[in-house]
Amino acid sequence: MKAIIYCRVSTEKDTQETSLIRQKEELLQLAEKYSFTIERVIEEKASGYEVDRDGILEVLQLLKDEDINILLVQDETRLGRGHARIAILHCLQKEKTSIFTISHQGELQLSESDSMVLEIISIVEEYQRKLHNAKIKRGMKRAVQNGYKPERNLKNQHLNSGRDRKEAPIEEIVRLRHNKLTFAEIAATLKGFGYNISKATVHRRYQEYFEGKESE
What we know:
Elements: E1 2-9, H1 14-33, E2 37-45, H2 54-65, E3 70-73, H3 83-94, E4 98-101, E5 106-107, H4 112-145, H5 150-153, H6 170-178, H7 183-192, H8 199-215
Parallel strand pairs: 1-2, 1-3, 3-4
Antiparallel strand pairs: 4-5
Helix pairs in contact: 4-7, 7-8
């Protein structure tokens, strides 16, 4: 099975260099014990309280893009500390990554409190997704009730199905606004038809449209 080794120390001090070397050597031994094939060894010197770390971001990207689902670390604090640790554990959980540590000499066993926190985060995230979808559905329904006909107004929408559209359909924004939809509802409605557009962008384009009309 393919695996990644991640080593971290918190400072640039020369004494920490020895720790990195030791972590790498011990993790290579752990990988050999379980017959893992190491695809990448990532080392970095950064605070565990930060999530914006090149090394851990590279780990997450590799796990997402490559056929790799095993991560080896000295212990879970190497992933991060405080809230950063929980956030990274959540990301790894979403990628269905198995974490092996030297401290456990095998797969990491989360504490009951950590497992409970991660479960709560997953539940909240799922409900956020449901609320987002409900907002899109509500916006689309309200738009149609007010005379909006997407099959007529969004011509050739099917040609770009599944792709983000950078251009905002200003005519549709104006039409929906005149139908009493809020900017948030307009953004949600257009997202339902394949336009990747935020409420702020909708508001800005709407203002630009009328500013352009006034200057004509």
